Amino acid sequence: MRVLRQLGPPLGLILAFFAGWETLVRLWEIPTYLLPAPTQIFQAIPAHLEILWLNSGVTLAAVGLGFGISLLGGLALGIAIFYSPMLERALYPILIASRNVPLFTIAPLLIVWMGFGLPPKVVVAVIIAFFPLVVSTYDGLRALDADLVNLFRALGATRWQILRKLRLPAALPFIFSGAKLSLVYSIIGAVFAEMVVGGQVWRASGVVAGGLGYWIRHATNFGHLDLAFALILWLSGLSLVLFGCIVWIERHLLRWQRVERI
After folding, report:
1. Which of these, 211, 137, 221, 150, lies nearest to 179 by C-alpha position?
2. Exposure check for the chain: N or C terminus, fewer CB within 10 A?
3. pTM attached to this predicted model
4. Any idea what DSSP says for residue 222?
């Protein structure tokens, strides 16, 4: 019953949206090359399952590497900035400025430097996903009550012990908030880079496996909007699964935390 109460409203809204979409397309007789009906989109998924599976692996590789590098690098840099005021003054403005650089200006340069493979996709994912983790880690370490730190120091705890046993556990809610944003951004960055970088031939079957982003662009350019929408739905499903994994890990590690709604 609890699951139904949680999933019922969003599922009902989604079903109503698709039902209205289907009705409008049928009533107005909108051609498929302009706006396919949901039934046509759902039929395109099993019809192009090989493309979906192969390119999901390419996209997930870029997302996984980009998110993993952002997670490790963001945590390390956030801690370093917290403990070094000089590093904070030097790097924090650069990090903020990097968020204002449009991605479409960077991607062509990365193609020149790294080619058309996986590296430029990972770099774009890292660029866009790195900032939230650095900021959330830094803010989480700063948010700790100073009296608790003083208590640990009075008990003879070293700086490393304070970080490992007090600061990092207290900062976990902030870090997970940044990790969820970073995951979403890494997916956006990887898919955008796939649209720009293009595809590569998957030698096992000859299918072009440039990632889901590449095939969304390819299908749109050739008027196969049913396939383009199918790819978007498939990508949305993968994103929800990945986001759900982060939420599950957060709930498992933060079982001690209880948020009460007033």
Report:
1. 137
2. C
3. 0.83
4. T
